[in-house]
Amino acid sequence: MRCLVVLSGEICDDEAARLWLQTADRVICADGGARHLRRLGVRPDLLVGDLDSIAADDLSWIREQQVPVSRFPAMKNETDSELAIQAALADLPGPPEQHEGVILGVTGSRPDHVLANQLLAGRLAGEGWRLILTDGRSTTYTLAGGQTLNLDLPVQANPPWIVSAIPITDEIAGLTYQGLEYPLTDARLNRGSTRGLSNRPVSPAVRITLALGVLLIVVTPEE
After folding, report:
1. Which domains does the chain have, with CATH numbers?
2. pLDDT confidence of residue 1
């Protein structure tokens, strides 16, 4: 099952966002993310947040669409993003590995929120969830020990794709690339290492495997 959460950050490509939304089984909106869904004409299954960043017109649209609202106080211990992600992943049948969470609208002018959401995704990956964070142009995938990530990246893309692997646990081990310009085989990296940055596909089929730890795999156009 694919659960999609729409945040209030940037969406750089509406067509890409629509494709993600079309594949979602559940769509949860975090507060001001309603502006994106209203623009794209997609009704969410639930709105979550303290409603401090949603515009009045967007809130009126939510009410017109009869979207359920899970409202929280402004003074709370979690961000609206975390609460929305929790709601998206709640009550899913079977183990986490059977499901995928897509977080749309994660970039923007608040680097603290961007980093916090990336680290939150990494923590959830350590619990078995597969997470994808995207603004419609750049996409970040979580990869935990024992998992494999397969990517379809055209070699002659313009602009070309950049693939970076960033450890977010103290140590990762058994990192192996197939289809990238700078190969790694059973590599071991520590958190803070930049060795995995700025790789490029040499085959349209890219395969990344990991034995231990948690990585963020960032795929972005070179600009």
Report:
1. 2-137 (3.40.50.10240), 142-221 (3.40.50.10240)
2. 92
